Amino acid sequence: MSINAIKGFNDLLPSDSARWQFIEATARTVFTAFGFEEIRVPIVEKTELFSRSIGDTTDIVEKEMYSFSDKGGNALTLRPEGTAGVMRAFIEHKLHVQDAVTKLYYMGPMFRHERPQKGRYRQFHQIGAEVVGVHGPLVDAHVLVMIAQLFTALGLDEPTLQINSLGCPDCRPRYREQLIAHLSDRRSELCEDCNRRIDTNPLRALDCKVPGCQEATSHAPAMIDHLCATCSDHFTTVRSYLDATATPYQINPRMVRGLDYYTRTTFEVVTGLLGAQSAVAAGGRYDGLVRQLGGPDAPGIGFAMGVERVALLLEQRQFQSVPALFIAVMGDAARIAAFQMMTQLQKQGIRVELDYEGKSLKSQMRRADKLAARYSLVLGDDELVSNTIQLKRMDDGSQQSLRFDATTIADALTGGAGL
Ligand code: HAM
Q1: Is residue 258 in contact with ligand 1, taking CB distance under 6 Å?
Q2: pLDDT in the model for residue 319
Q3: Is the pLDDT of residue 338 over 60?
Q4: Cβ 114 vs Cβ 308: under 8 Å
Q5: Does 375 sit in the ligand 1 pocket, CB within 6 Å?
Q6: What pLDDT, on the 0 to 100 scale, is given for residue 415?
Q7: Angle of the 83-92 helix axis to the 47-54 helix axis, nearest 10
Q8: 25, containing H or E segment
């Protein structure tokens, strides 16, 4: 019996990989323009890193981590997100000593044991970026403008940027008490999970998808109305910078995030096109995280984008490369000459395909069509003797007579087809 992949773990097939390469290349270009450099951190870290940063009472840590002990008895976890590992590396390698402001980006697989559905997988991929070392609101706007630019560069204008503020250790506890009072009065209307959350993580009740809970919290107090003066100023200034750069956004006072490290500005890029999985990117400020992990008192802000979700949004667009030329051959002598020609053109970066093993001319031309080659030529004994071929444009069938010479053919292919 053959062995299949595990549920929620997907193969990326050649038919999709060009789209992923486009997403990754676009992100690299945008990040580089905004001054970010790449960091690569391990996929496996100590479990404690994630429980301490993401929070013991979050869904991720409570239910979704792929944790195991290795042969040495160490408690390890496949990373469920990127920020914790990047901050661990930031602290371990004292990156703040080199520069007071550190701007990093990363891409790679993450693992969460969630119920798989369209846009939600157990192994999924994030492209993320983090800035460490800046307290002021300009950097919040810098990250948000970069996210907006990233989606523009991807050619996606439908997702909307939503922002909120989750306050700080000064104002959030006071707000939390008010929210707990509101939820406690409505215990009977709330689901079992939310009843438990009242004591552990009451803000998560605002995010519950159960209709009864949504109804019961529809008039719950919002953090944004209970910010301290400093957090309120910070949020207002972030907004003014977004306005100054004409960056569109909406305020979503009910937005809470599934990770506990956030303070102040949080945000999501949401789409209406992926059903329940509406967030294509998300992030926020985490001013206490680095210190909490044993590092310097360095504030941070960042985001991560879900590559599978962006790829779904780009599904209609064609990214696969097509051959510039298909060489159909008749006879062994022609095959050698075609192989030499193909090699010379490929050295110039031109994609060429040919028949590998003596199929009929008809079947070779069918393959040229299937590969959507832009041009084709047929090479047989006559063409070898005359050293002349007919270069055929596949879309309109027009032909030109050319010398069978790499420079001549390369000129015709690049000049005419715009590779
Ligand atoms: P997150 O909201 O948990 O944040 O994930 C960010 C993005 O990853 C989501 O908006 C979504 O697009 C994608 N994503 C999450 N879970 C799945 C899944 N099971 N399947 C497919 N895609 C998924 C974080 O992970 C934070 N580390 C972001 C951050 C960076 N905050 C500050 N810096």
Answers
A1: yes
A2: 85
A3: yes
A4: no
A5: no
A6: 81
A7: 110
A8: helix 14-33
The per-residue pLDDT for range 75-92, each reduced to its tens digit, is 999 999 999 999 999 999
Cα separation, 194 vs 100, whole angstroms: 41
Ligand 1 centre from 216 Cα, in Å? 27
pTM score? 0.92
Whether 223 contacts 175, CB under 8 Å: yes
Alpha carbon of 148 to ligand 1 centroid (Å) = 17
Atom of ligand 1 nearest to the CA of 280: 12
- What lies within 8 Å, CB to CB, of 132 at 6+ separation is 87, 90, 95, 96, 101, 102, 104, 290, 298, 299, 300
pLDDT in tens, 143-166: 999 999 999 999 999 999 999 999
DSSP string, 91-103: HHTTHHHH-SSEE
Q: Whose CA is nearest to atom 20 of ligand 1?
A: 120
- Ligand 1 center to 55 CA (angstroms): 15
Q: How far apart are CA 148 and CA 156, in angstroms?
A: 10
Q: What is the C-alpha separation between 183 and 214, in angstroms, rounded? A: 11
pLDDT, mean over the chain: 95
Residue 131, exposed/middle/buried by CB under 10 A (0-12, 13-18, 19+)?
A: buried
